[in-house]
Amino acid sequence: MSLVDGLYGAIHIRPKQDRMGLWSQIVSDYKDVEAMEKAARDPEYLVVSDWSQYTSDEYWKISTDSGMLVFCLDSILVNGKGELYCPGQKFLQSELAPGLVDDAFPPGTKVSDKGCFPAQLDQIQGGPWNVTKRPDLIPPRVQEGCVPSKHENASITVDPKKNNGWVSMHVVAAATIAQIAFSIDDHEFWLYEVDGNYVNPKKFVSMVMSAGETFSIMVKLDKTPGKYTMRIPNSGVSQVLGGYAEMIYAGHEQDQRSEKPYLSFGGNPISPDVEKNSYFPWQLESDHMEPWPPNKPRPGNADEEHLLAVGRVGAPYNYTMNTKYLYPIDFQNNDPLLFYPNATVGTENDNLVIRTKNGSWVDLILQVSTLPGDTSAFEHFMHKHGSKTWRIGFGTGVWNYTSVEEAIKERPKDFNLETPGLRDTWLTAFSVTGEAYWNVFRYHVDNPGPWLFHCHIELHLMGGMGIVIMDGADAWPENIPKEYQLD
Ligand SMILES: [Cu+2]
Q1: Confidence band, pLDDT 50/70/90 cuts, at residue 193
Q2: Domain segments of the chain: what residues?
Q3: Residue 455: band (very low, low, confident or very high) from pLDDT cuts 50, 70, 90
Q4: Which residue among 62, 307, 346, 381 is buried most deeply as judged by most CB within 10 Å?
């Protein structure tokens, strides 16, 4: 759980690819196409993180001591800058995502003066394991007791005279828990890259990113020159928590900040029109963002498939990728799988290892909300290292098919093999009422190595939500060159 301690940064890999075909989906004028290419080569960076006054070790201990999963943060930071806001309990209550309390929590549920939900709620801790219940072991100011702290927010200076007024921004969601909403007052944008892959650009006024994702956007600087507020709050499902930065047209540093929001303090769209023009990753049926250039998976059946029942198990803070097995953060530290690929064979630890054949097509089927007691499952941000996956299927209910091909035949509407998105990180459904859901992720094994597949909510990973996928294990070198061998 190192992100909350500040262990993150951005790496920009400049592409060799000719992107003219990408920009010409946004504009027709060749000058604009060229200007966008220039803007994309000289982007602005926004690394968005969430911050707690407690360190990661302290934070994790709060959950294990109190027996309750605690997820209450202090600030959203942009490029390491931010403030701690205390706008008052009444205001925070009014900023709750509409319907959230009605759907997910008992009537009358109140957030704290930090915008956090009461830790004691069974709906938050799940069951039947919510037995320790020691809220007295939660230190002061974790859940409530807001103390404001004034600082400065990140500011991005942009020049409308450059690149025909186009500016590109890379937004990195380097958060521990938060799911970040993003908007710039009065400026719409084109979302053109997701997780390092180009997508057919789409125009939005706000977007939501989950921890572990990177998005790139193209913005036209065609408004009255001035200082525009960027609203980058938590999207509100886990906490009402505001976050801000500003975009300044060069020479207007002294202007007043704009007050023309698309998003409220707590991340809610301010009108139905804004909602309609926003990108929400939890709209799982429609969230594809097609790859550009077109890139689709092999049709029909994959060569191998792995069914993983994921979710909470045994304690409010324990999560599994495989039915009941918990991934310890020091898994195989003494016998790393890279050097000892068979070290877990025949042991309990092998339940935390999947082996795939080099060159094969693999389906990972993730089932949520079927584990005993895990009936109202929170979203998970599923992140695979080593290769991206296409989400080819999403449906409700319990996965009960002998193969993916059979499921495709029986419920063709739940599958998309023509235009699925291709990403590092995918959301699983938020099962508010206990309904079960499944996802099917397909990928081609072309990058042999021991890769982690895990939930990017760091508290869930700390609680065991990881598994090793040994991709192309049959193609790993038998003889490790001497200089790379362990002593
Ligand atoms: Cu998770």
Answers
A1: very high
A2: 1-281, 304-484
A3: very high
A4: 381
CATH code of the domain occupying 304-484: 2.60.40.420
1-281: CATH, from 3.40.50.300, 3.10.150.10, 3.30.365.10, 2.60.40.420: 2.60.40.420
Q: Residue for token digits 């409530």?
A: 144
Could you give the C-alpha distances from 403 to 119, 350, 362, 442, in angstroms and in order?
40, 23, 12, 13
What separation in Å is there between the alpha carbon of 176 and the centre of ligand 1?
11
Distance 247 CA to ligand 1 centre (A): 33
Instruction: Report CA(324)–ligand 1 centroid distance (Å).
Output: 14
**d(CA 207, ligand 1 centre) in Å:** 20
Q: What's residue 1's pLDDT? A: 61
Strands 44-51 and 166-173, by their bridges, are parallel
Average pLDDT over the chain, rounded to whole? 94
pLDDT above 90 as % of the chain: 83
Q: How far is the CA of 281 from the centre of ligand 1 (A)?
A: 15
d(CA 114, ligand 1 centre) in Å: 22
**Interior CA angle at 408 toward 403 and 414, to 5°?**
125
DSSP structure string for 49-97: EEE-SS-HHHHHHHHHHHTS-----SEEEETTB--B----HHHHHHTSP
- 226 CA from centroid of ligand 1 (Å): 40
377-409 pLDDT, tens digit per residue, is: 889 999 999 999 999 999 999 999 999 999 999
Could you read off the pLDDT of 143-155 as tens digits, one per residue? 999 999 999 999 9
